[in-house]
Structures are given as structure tokens and as C-alpha cells.
Specification:
This protein has eight helices and eleven strands. The protein is α/β, with parallel strands linked by helices and 254 residues long. An eight-stranded mixed sheet has the order 5-3-2-6-9-10-1-11. Strands 4-8-7 form a three-stranded antiparallel sheet, with helices on one face. The structure holds fructose -6-phosphate. Fructose -6-phosphate is lined by residues 35-39, 66-67, 132-134, 138-141.
């Protein structure tokens, strides 16, 4: 695992965009696993800017997103489909049929989970999976639990997650109670993983994920078992790690 320290959100986003861009340049038909939330917005802005300058071609790229709220249509402004269209897909030349996100409006969510898992298997491998981290250590919507769930599944969102995400909705009650998420096995089967974290409220979760015991109570801790993980984090998110490791530089290999 390699950790890149970024002074701030801008530098973290630049680093992440460069890593993703390198994948698209070296493998024009790359499969990118994507995330939503506030963390990757700066990364998507930079990828869109590189595309607009003629530096990146997404015409052969395929994307698969981690998760979607159950019950929200792709037109709902808080749905993850809407988010991805707005922050990335509408700004680059990716054919819409190359972009995959679980269907929050599927009549039968269990069937939708099976369909999404089968889709992931049919794509063979995700070349790089972009991840944010919840302040409770979740990845995708794999919430702290007693066991790791392998495939795409329906989850009850943790109260903490609904509270954190209520900032995007007009009231906390509007945050859906359930979501469909890729499982830990799906995430771990990606060839490489790029985990981003910024802000003080991620510091404890990031430390627990990268230096704590591997446990489903901190779902991101499973990443310690993956052999190709890159972390880009700002100084605020690195605070607890800096204190524990006494590391002072820009790159930490562990
Ligand atoms: C979103 C996702 C979540 C977020 C996490 C952090 O697709 O999978 O795991 O990455 O909740 O969210 P932000 O970036 O809003 O702090």
C-alpha cells in the first residue's frame, strides 16, 4: 500500500485525477469503478477539464459505480445516477450505455443485486476502483457489521451515514433508509484501488482502516489484504496516521 500526502483537497484531487487519467491513457478501454459523495467531485472536475483540453478520450471506457439509493430514480437530484451524469458523464465523451449504476427503482432489489453482480462478472475486471470512506469506515455502502458481504446487496444505511448524507437532502427524513451496494468481494476483485480521504472527520476512520485490525466493524480495513492500493489523502485526514507512524514525508509505503 502506498499513501500520498496532499496538502489539501485540491492536491488530493489532482493526484487522483492523474492516476485515473494514466489508466485511461494506457488502456483506452479501461473499466473504471467509480464513487460518489463530496470526496471525488474535484477529481471528476479535473478529469472533465483534461477531456475538454483534448487530453483524455473516454469513448471506449466503461464505468461501474459502487452504489445507489433504493427508491430514487436517476432523475432525482440526490440519486447517484444524477450525480454521476452531472459531475462527470455529461462533461466527457463516454457513451451513456457504457456507464453502469445499480437501478434504485428496480421492482425487486434482490434481483437487481443479482443482475449487478452478474454484470460485474461479465466485465471481467475493474482496472481501478475509486473509493471514498465514510466516517464510520464504510466503503461503498458496506456499513460496519459482523461479517463482510461478498456480492452486491441491499443494505440498511447506518444512522451515522444517513446523518452525514442529510447535508445533500432538504431534511434528514428524506435520506433513503436503504441502498444497493457492491459487496466487499466485488470491490476487492478490482485490479487496483484508489482510496481518497479529506477532512478531519475522516482521520480516525482512515487510521482504523489502514493501521487497525482487519474487521467488518471497519469495512475499509479489508483493503489491507489487497495488494495494489493507493491512498491519496489531505493533511487533515492524515492527522491520526501521522501521529501514530511519526511519518513526515509525502509518500509512505506500508
Ligand atoms: C459513495 C460511496 C460512499 C462515500 C462515503 C464518503 O458512492 O460509496 O462510500 O464514498 O460515504 O462520502 P463523502 O465523500 O461524501 O464524504
Amino acid at each position: 500500500m502506498r499513501i500520498y500526502a496532499a496538502a489539501d483537497y485540491e492536491e488530493m484531487s489532482q493526484r487522483a485525477a492523474s492516476i485515473l487519467a494514466a489508466h485511461v491513457i494506457t488502456k483506452p478501454d479501461a473499466v473504471l469503478g467509480l464513487a460518489t459523495g463530496s470526496t471525488p467531485i474535484g477529481t471528476y472536475d479535473r478529469l472533465a477539464a483534461m477531456h475538454q483540453k483534448g487530453m483524455l478520450d473516454f469513448s471506449q471506457v466503461t464505468t461501474v459505480n459502487l452504489d445507489e439509493y433504493e427508491g430514487l430514480s436517476g432523475e432525482h437530484p440526490q440519486s447517484y445516477r444524477y450525480f454521476m451524469n452531472k459531475h462527470l458523464f455529461e462533461r466527457i465523451n463516454i457513451p451513456r450505455e457504457h456507464t453502469f449504476i445499480p437501478d434504485g427503482l428496480a421492482k425487486n432489489s434482490a434481483e437487481e443485486c443479482k443482475r449487478y453482480t452478474a454484470l460485474l462478472h461479465s466485465l471481467k475486471n475493474i482496472d481501478i476502483q475509486l473509493l471514498g470512506i465514510g466516517s464510520n469506515g464504510h466503503i461503498g455502502f458496506n456499513e460496519p457489521s459482523d461479517s463482510f458481504c461478498r456480492d452486491t446487496h441491499v443494505v440498511m444505511l447506518a444512522e451515522q451515514t444517513r446523518k452525514n448524507n442529510s447535508r445533500f437532502f432538504s431534511s434528514p427524513e428524506e435520506v433513503p433508509a436503504r441502498a444497493i451496494t457492491m459487496g466487499i468481494g466485488n470491490i476487492m476483485s478490482a485490479e487496483s484501488i484508489l482510496l481518497l480521504a479529506n477532512g478531519k472527520n475522516k482521520s480516525d476512520a482512515l487510521f482504523a482502516a489502514l493501521f487497525g485490525p482487519i474487521t467488518p466493524k471497519v469495512p475499509a480495513s479489508i483493503l489491507q489484504f489487497h495488494n495494489n492500493v493507493t491512498v491519496a489523502a489531505d493533511e487533515e485526514a492524515l492527522c491520526a496516521i501521522r501521529e501514530f507512524t511519526r511519518w513526515e514525508g509525502k509518500i509512505y509505503d506500508c
